[in-house]
Specification:
Blueprint: H1 5-17, H2 20-27, H3 31-42, E1 50-53, E2 56-59, H4 61-87, E3 93-100, H5 112-117, E4 121-128, H6 130-138, E5 144-147, E6 156-171, H7 182-188, E7 191-194, H8 199-210, E8 218-221, H9 224-232, E9 238-241, H10 246-251, E10 254-256, E11 264-273, H11 280-300
Parallel strand pairs: 3-4, 3-5, 7-8
Antiparallel strand pairs: 1-2, 5-11, 6-9, 6-10, 6-11
Helix pairs in contact: 1-2, 1-3, 1-4, 2-3
Length: 305
Protein backbone atom coordinates (compact mmCIF):
# COMPACT_ATOMS: atom_id res chain seq x y z
CA UNK A 1 0.00 0.00 0.00
CA UNK A 2 1.27 3.43 -0.93
CA UNK A 3 -1.47 5.89 0.01
CA UNK A 4 -0.80 9.57 0.62
CA UNK A 5 -1.86 11.80 3.49
CA UNK A 6 -3.94 13.76 1.01
CA UNK A 7 -5.85 10.61 0.03
CA UNK A 8 -6.45 9.77 3.69
CA UNK A 9 -7.73 13.28 4.33
CA UNK A 10 -10.03 13.21 1.31
CA UNK A 11 -11.52 9.83 2.17
CA UNK A 12 -11.96 10.72 5.83
CA UNK A 13 -13.80 13.91 4.84
CA UNK A 14 -16.06 12.02 2.39
CA UNK A 15 -16.92 9.54 5.13
CA UNK A 16 -17.60 12.40 7.54
CA UNK A 17 -19.83 14.42 5.19
CA UNK A 18 -21.35 11.57 3.16
CA UNK A 19 -20.79 13.57 0.01
CA UNK A 20 -18.01 14.17 -2.51
CA UNK A 21 -19.37 17.67 -3.17
CA UNK A 22 -19.43 18.65 0.51
CA UNK A 23 -15.98 17.14 1.06
CA UNK A 24 -14.65 19.22 -1.85
CA UNK A 25 -16.18 22.38 -0.38
CA UNK A 26 -14.73 21.82 3.09
CA UNK A 27 -11.30 20.92 1.71
CA UNK A 28 -11.38 23.84 -0.75
CA UNK A 29 -10.81 21.48 -3.68
CA UNK A 30 -12.71 20.92 -6.90
CA UNK A 31 -15.13 18.00 -7.06
CA UNK A 32 -13.15 16.27 -9.87
CA UNK A 33 -9.97 16.52 -7.77
CA UNK A 34 -11.70 14.84 -4.82
CA UNK A 35 -13.15 12.12 -7.09
CA UNK A 36 -9.69 11.38 -8.49
CA UNK A 37 -8.18 11.10 -5.01
CA UNK A 38 -11.01 8.79 -3.96
CA UNK A 39 -10.48 6.57 -7.01
CA UNK A 40 -6.72 6.38 -6.46
CA UNK A 41 -7.28 5.51 -2.80
CA UNK A 42 -9.86 2.84 -3.67
CA UNK A 43 -7.44 1.24 -6.18
CA UNK A 44 -5.25 0.20 -3.27
CA UNK A 45 -7.98 -2.03 -1.83
CA UNK A 46 -9.66 -5.13 -3.25
CA UNK A 47 -12.70 -4.51 -1.04
CA UNK A 48 -15.01 -1.59 -1.92
CA UNK A 49 -14.81 1.42 0.36
CA UNK A 50 -17.95 3.07 -1.03
CA UNK A 51 -21.02 2.27 -3.06
CA UNK A 52 -23.24 4.58 -5.06
CA UNK A 53 -27.02 4.13 -4.99
CA UNK A 54 -28.88 6.55 -7.19
CA UNK A 55 -26.79 9.68 -6.90
CA UNK A 56 -25.81 9.23 -3.25
CA UNK A 57 -22.52 7.79 -2.05
CA UNK A 58 -22.50 5.39 0.89
CA UNK A 59 -19.54 4.18 2.94
CA UNK A 60 -19.33 0.38 3.25
CA UNK A 61 -18.64 -1.36 6.57
CA UNK A 62 -15.05 -1.89 5.46
CA UNK A 63 -14.88 1.74 4.36
CA UNK A 64 -15.98 2.93 7.80
CA UNK A 65 -13.14 0.96 9.40
CA UNK A 66 -10.66 2.50 6.99
CA UNK A 67 -12.10 5.98 7.61
CA UNK A 68 -11.62 5.50 11.36
CA UNK A 69 -8.03 4.39 10.80
CA UNK A 70 -7.47 7.37 8.49
CA UNK A 71 -8.77 9.75 11.17
CA UNK A 72 -6.41 8.26 13.75
CA UNK A 73 -3.44 8.51 11.38
CA UNK A 74 -4.21 12.14 10.56
CA UNK A 75 -4.51 12.95 14.27
CA UNK A 76 -1.07 11.43 14.85
CA UNK A 77 0.39 13.42 11.97
CA UNK A 78 -1.08 16.60 13.47
CA UNK A 79 0.39 15.67 16.84
CA UNK A 80 3.83 15.23 15.26
CA UNK A 81 3.57 18.60 13.55
CA UNK A 82 2.45 20.28 16.76
CA UNK A 83 5.28 18.70 18.77
CA UNK A 84 7.78 19.85 16.18
CA UNK A 85 6.48 23.42 16.36
CA UNK A 86 6.42 23.33 20.16
CA UNK A 87 10.04 22.12 20.19
CA UNK A 88 10.93 25.13 18.06
CA UNK A 89 9.12 27.40 20.50
CA UNK A 90 6.27 28.16 18.10
CA UNK A 91 2.59 28.43 18.99
CA UNK A 92 0.32 25.70 17.63
CA UNK A 93 -3.31 24.63 17.78
CA UNK A 94 -6.68 25.94 16.60
CA UNK A 95 -8.26 29.35 17.00
CA UNK A 96 -12.04 29.12 16.66
CA UNK A 97 -14.05 32.28 16.02
CA UNK A 98 -17.68 32.93 15.10
CA UNK A 99 -18.53 36.23 13.45
CA UNK A 100 -21.82 37.97 12.68
CA UNK A 101 -22.15 38.43 8.93
CA UNK A 102 -21.35 42.15 8.77
CA UNK A 103 -18.32 41.44 10.95
CA UNK A 104 -16.62 39.86 7.94
CA UNK A 105 -15.56 43.41 7.06
CA UNK A 106 -13.87 43.73 10.46
CA UNK A 107 -12.52 40.45 11.82
CA UNK A 108 -9.93 39.56 9.13
CA UNK A 109 -7.96 42.73 9.91
CA UNK A 110 -7.71 41.72 13.57
CA UNK A 111 -6.46 38.25 12.59
CA UNK A 112 -3.93 38.82 9.81
CA UNK A 113 -0.84 39.83 11.79
CA UNK A 114 -1.43 37.13 14.42
CA UNK A 115 -1.84 34.38 11.83
CA UNK A 116 1.25 35.50 9.89
CA UNK A 117 3.31 35.52 13.08
CA UNK A 118 2.08 32.06 14.13
CA UNK A 119 2.07 29.68 11.13
CA UNK A 120 1.38 26.73 13.43
CA UNK A 121 -2.05 28.12 14.34
CA UNK A 122 -5.04 26.86 12.37
CA UNK A 123 -7.98 29.26 12.04
CA UNK A 124 -11.63 28.19 12.00
CA UNK A 125 -13.92 31.18 11.40
CA UNK A 126 -17.67 30.80 10.94
CA UNK A 127 -19.47 33.82 9.47
CA UNK A 128 -23.23 33.66 10.13
CA UNK A 129 -26.09 35.59 11.71
CA UNK A 130 -26.15 36.75 15.32
CA UNK A 131 -28.44 34.00 16.58
CA UNK A 132 -26.11 31.24 15.37
CA UNK A 133 -23.04 33.11 16.59
CA UNK A 134 -24.46 33.29 20.12
CA UNK A 135 -25.50 29.63 20.02
CA UNK A 136 -21.98 28.55 19.10
CA UNK A 137 -20.57 30.69 21.90
CA UNK A 138 -23.11 29.42 24.43
CA UNK A 139 -22.33 25.82 23.46
CA UNK A 140 -18.62 26.51 24.03
CA UNK A 141 -17.84 25.59 20.42
CA UNK A 142 -15.66 28.64 19.79
CA UNK A 143 -12.99 30.62 21.61
CA UNK A 144 -14.32 34.04 20.67
CA UNK A 145 -17.20 35.70 18.85
CA UNK A 146 -17.49 39.08 17.17
CA UNK A 147 -20.78 40.94 17.68
CA UNK A 148 -22.04 44.51 17.65
CA UNK A 149 -24.74 44.00 20.29
CA UNK A 150 -23.99 42.07 23.50
CA UNK A 151 -26.38 39.24 24.37
CA UNK A 152 -27.92 39.97 27.74
CA UNK A 153 -28.45 36.39 28.91
CA UNK A 154 -24.78 35.32 28.98
CA UNK A 155 -21.99 36.15 31.42
CA UNK A 156 -19.28 37.45 29.11
CA UNK A 157 -15.93 39.14 28.91
CA UNK A 158 -15.45 41.55 26.04
CA UNK A 159 -13.03 43.91 24.32
CA UNK A 160 -14.25 46.85 22.25
CA UNK A 161 -12.47 46.80 18.90
CA UNK A 162 -14.16 49.42 16.78
CA UNK A 163 -17.10 51.82 16.65
CA UNK A 164 -20.07 50.62 14.61
CA UNK A 165 -22.26 53.31 13.03
CA UNK A 166 -25.46 52.63 11.09
CA UNK A 167 -26.95 55.13 8.64
CA UNK A 168 -30.05 55.32 6.47
CA UNK A 169 -28.83 54.94 2.88
CA UNK A 170 -30.13 54.82 -0.68
CA UNK A 171 -28.59 54.70 -4.14
CA UNK A 172 -27.38 57.69 -6.17
CA UNK A 173 -30.55 57.96 -8.24
CA UNK A 174 -33.30 57.60 -5.63
CA UNK A 175 -31.77 59.28 -2.59
CA UNK A 176 -33.41 62.66 -1.79
CA UNK A 177 -31.05 65.62 -1.98
CA UNK A 178 -32.56 67.36 1.05
CA UNK A 179 -33.93 66.57 4.51
CA UNK A 180 -36.77 64.08 4.30
CA UNK A 181 -39.82 63.12 6.32
CA UNK A 182 -39.26 59.46 7.18
CA UNK A 183 -42.98 58.75 7.45
CA UNK A 184 -43.46 59.95 3.88
CA UNK A 185 -40.31 58.19 2.65
CA UNK A 186 -41.31 54.81 4.10
CA UNK A 187 -44.85 55.12 2.72
CA UNK A 188 -43.45 55.60 -0.78
CA UNK A 189 -40.52 53.14 -0.82
CA UNK A 190 -39.74 49.83 0.90
CA UNK A 191 -37.39 49.66 3.86
CA UNK A 192 -35.05 46.71 3.41
CA UNK A 193 -34.40 44.61 6.53
CA UNK A 194 -31.97 41.85 7.38
CA UNK A 195 -33.46 38.56 8.54
CA UNK A 196 -34.71 37.97 12.10
CA UNK A 197 -31.81 37.20 14.41
CA UNK A 198 -29.56 39.80 12.81
CA UNK A 199 -27.95 42.44 15.03
CA UNK A 200 -28.46 45.05 12.30
CA UNK A 201 -32.16 44.27 12.19
CA UNK A 202 -32.36 44.54 15.97
CA UNK A 203 -30.83 48.02 15.78
CA UNK A 204 -33.20 49.04 12.98
CA UNK A 205 -36.29 47.87 14.82
CA UNK A 206 -35.22 49.69 17.99
CA UNK A 207 -34.79 52.91 16.00
CA UNK A 208 -38.18 52.52 14.29
CA UNK A 209 -39.89 51.92 17.64
CA UNK A 210 -38.12 54.87 19.29
CA UNK A 211 -39.10 57.20 16.43
CA UNK A 212 -42.67 55.81 16.41
CA UNK A 213 -42.48 55.16 12.69
CA UNK A 214 -44.84 53.09 10.58
CA UNK A 215 -43.18 51.00 7.88
CA UNK A 216 -45.95 49.68 5.58
CA UNK A 217 -43.57 48.54 2.85
CA UNK A 218 -40.95 46.03 3.95
CA UNK A 219 -38.46 43.76 2.27
CA UNK A 220 -36.39 41.09 4.06
CA UNK A 221 -33.06 39.75 2.79
CA UNK A 222 -30.70 37.26 4.40
CA UNK A 223 -27.29 38.90 4.11
CA UNK A 224 -25.71 42.32 4.33
CA UNK A 225 -24.37 41.91 0.79
CA UNK A 226 -27.86 41.15 -0.53
CA UNK A 227 -29.24 44.25 1.20
CA UNK A 228 -26.46 46.37 -0.27
CA UNK A 229 -27.09 45.12 -3.80
CA UNK A 230 -30.84 45.73 -3.40
CA UNK A 231 -30.21 49.31 -2.30
CA UNK A 232 -27.77 49.86 -5.17
CA UNK A 233 -30.40 48.55 -7.59
CA UNK A 234 -32.95 51.06 -6.28
CA UNK A 235 -35.30 48.55 -4.65
CA UNK A 236 -35.57 50.65 -1.51
CA UNK A 237 -33.68 52.10 1.45
CA UNK A 238 -32.00 50.49 4.41
CA UNK A 239 -30.20 51.28 7.65
CA UNK A 240 -26.74 49.81 7.19
CA UNK A 241 -23.41 49.66 9.05
CA UNK A 242 -20.91 52.13 7.63
CA UNK A 243 -18.21 49.46 7.74
CA UNK A 244 -19.79 47.49 4.89
CA UNK A 245 -20.55 50.34 2.50
CA UNK A 246 -17.41 52.50 2.57
CA UNK A 247 -16.48 51.82 -1.05
CA UNK A 248 -20.00 52.52 -2.32
CA UNK A 249 -20.14 55.82 -0.43
CA UNK A 250 -16.73 56.89 -1.70
CA UNK A 251 -17.69 56.11 -5.30
CA UNK A 252 -21.03 57.91 -4.95
CA UNK A 253 -23.04 54.79 -5.84
CA UNK A 254 -24.71 54.98 -2.43
CA UNK A 255 -25.61 58.02 -0.34
CA UNK A 256 -26.37 58.70 3.31
CA UNK A 257 -29.76 60.29 4.02
CA UNK A 258 -29.48 62.81 6.90
CA UNK A 259 -31.98 61.79 9.55
CA UNK A 260 -32.47 62.92 13.15
CA UNK A 261 -31.58 60.11 15.53
CA UNK A 262 -29.03 58.56 13.20
CA UNK A 263 -26.42 57.22 13.07
CA UNK A 264 -27.14 54.38 15.45
CA UNK A 265 -23.93 53.81 17.39
CA UNK A 266 -22.81 50.47 18.78
CA UNK A 267 -19.38 48.85 18.94
CA UNK A 268 -17.74 45.81 17.41
CA UNK A 269 -16.82 43.64 20.38
CA UNK A 270 -14.77 40.51 20.74
CA UNK A 271 -16.55 38.39 23.36
CA UNK A 272 -15.92 35.14 25.22
CA UNK A 273 -17.58 33.27 28.07
CA UNK A 274 -16.68 34.26 31.60
CA UNK A 275 -14.81 31.45 33.28
CA UNK A 276 -13.77 29.87 29.99
CA UNK A 277 -10.44 28.04 30.19
CA UNK A 278 -8.70 29.62 27.21
CA UNK A 279 -6.19 27.55 25.27
CA UNK A 280 -2.60 28.83 24.86
CA UNK A 281 -3.53 29.91 21.32
CA UNK A 282 -6.62 31.80 22.53
CA UNK A 283 -4.63 33.47 25.33
CA UNK A 284 -1.95 34.54 22.87
CA UNK A 285 -4.56 35.92 20.47
CA UNK A 286 -6.28 37.85 23.25
CA UNK A 287 -2.97 39.40 24.23
CA UNK A 288 -2.33 40.29 20.59
CA UNK A 289 -5.71 42.00 20.24
CA UNK A 290 -5.30 44.00 23.45
CA UNK A 291 -1.91 45.26 22.29
CA UNK A 292 -2.73 45.88 18.63
CA UNK A 293 -6.40 46.91 18.44
CA UNK A 294 -5.77 50.67 18.37
CA UNK A 295 -3.09 50.35 15.71
CA UNK A 296 -5.27 48.10 13.54
CA UNK A 297 -8.32 50.35 13.92
CA UNK A 298 -6.31 53.44 13.03
CA UNK A 299 -4.61 51.79 10.07
CA UNK A 300 -7.65 50.21 8.42
CA UNK A 301 -10.76 51.93 9.77
CA UNK A 302 -9.98 55.62 10.10
CA UNK A 303 -13.07 56.61 8.07
CA UNK A 304 -15.38 54.23 9.94
CA UNK A 305 -14.81 55.51 13.48
Amino acid sequence: MNCTLNQLQVFQKIAQTGSVTKAAEELHLTQPAVSIQLRNFQNQFVIPLTEVIGRKIYITDFGREIALAAEQILEQVDAIQHKTLAYRGQLFGKLKVSVVSTGKYVMPYFLTAFMHANPGVELEMDVTNKTKVIKSLEANEVDFSLVSILPEHLALNHIDLLDNKLYLVGNRDTTPSEQVDLKVLFEQSPLIFREKGSGTRQSMEKFITTQQLNVPKKMELTSNEAVKQAVLAGLGYSIMPLIGIRNELQSGAMKIIPVEGLPIQTAWQLIWLKGKNLSPVAKAYLQHVEMEKERIAGLHFTHSR
